[in-house]
Amino acid sequence: MALDVERNAVLVIIDLQKGLDDPSCGRRDNPACEDNISELVGAWRRSGRPLVLVRHDDAQADSPLAPGRPGNAFKDGLVAALGDREPDLLVAKSVSSAFHGQPDLHGWLQQRGILQLVLCGVQTNRCCETTARVAGSLGYDMLFALDATHTFDDTGPGRNADRR
Which superfamily does CATH assign the domain made up of 10-150 to? Predict the structure, then answer.
């Protein structure tokens, strides 16, 4: 099924970082996520639409996602898919929603008249979902590239809460 994607829709890639391969994250689903994101990035770039990367910068120094740690870097497949082209925007956040990071994603989207977001990345039911909920509350049309997201087994409330 073809998606009805607006001409100026933005692809938002959330937290595709090396640190989320840490065993402490638990078992994950969708082993094809990274490959699917790489393919999506290529198609998106060819379409000429804007692309936003979101990076989780954890405030806890011992977190795999802490700035300066190797796990804070984007995964190699994403870096290769981007090639020498920088994203149109890089948002750094320390909470689940990309709309609570810097620079201001909402302001950037508004300046460009972008009303539709296509989300992919990690973790489907945390940062991706939270970003989608905030976007919906702000009036954006949301699409998920579900084959380009993944999540981890959770055992209950509070699991990994100290990391995110």
Answer: Isochorismatase-like (3.40.50.850)
